[in-house]
Each structure stands twice: as structure tokens, then as C-alpha cells.
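Q: Got a minute? One more chain.
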Amino acid sequence: MIIPDLDDLVLESDEESGIQELGRRFLARGPWTTVVFLVRTKTDPEGDWDGPFLWLHRYQKVAQGWKLVSRFRTTETAQLLKLADALEEWRDYFSAGR
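A: Always. Here it is, folded:
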């Protein structure tokens, strides 16, 4: 699936699709663009929402627009918490001069 413009990118976010987008951030823009989404999901339309989960998508610029090339998705809230803990622990390494 080709997306003409990433600024118009829409996750199917409604009760019927079982996806609810809570937020998004562009981590990198250019010929290779990285977008991170915070979502909740549910498998049963009558059930409760699960999550939140992190979805990390990489898009490549192609002649017709943007193509989703890869994605990483946490599948448990515990994974998201472990990732947040690891990033916080490594925060000093991200500083200039290290």
C-alpha cells in the first residue's frame, strides 16, 4: 500500500477496526521516515481496550509516495514499560559529548 503523503497518514482508528490511536511522533523525516504510534487495540468489538502499545513504522519514499517497509509492535504493556525504563537508564548516553 502506497501512502501519498505521510502527513495524511491515518490509522484505522475506530470501534469497528479495533484500533485507537492515542498519539504519534515523527522520529525521523527524510527518504526514510520513522513514525511511532501509541495505540490501544481490542479483538472483540464488545470487549475492553488492551494496551497501550507502541507501534514503530519505517516508511521509504518511492515515486508514488511512501511505502511501509518495516514495523515493530509491542504486544504487551509490560514491554512498553521495559522499553521506557531502558531509555531512561541510557539517557546520559544520548547527551552530546559522550
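A: DSSP finds one helix and five strands in the chain.
Q: Perfect, thanks.
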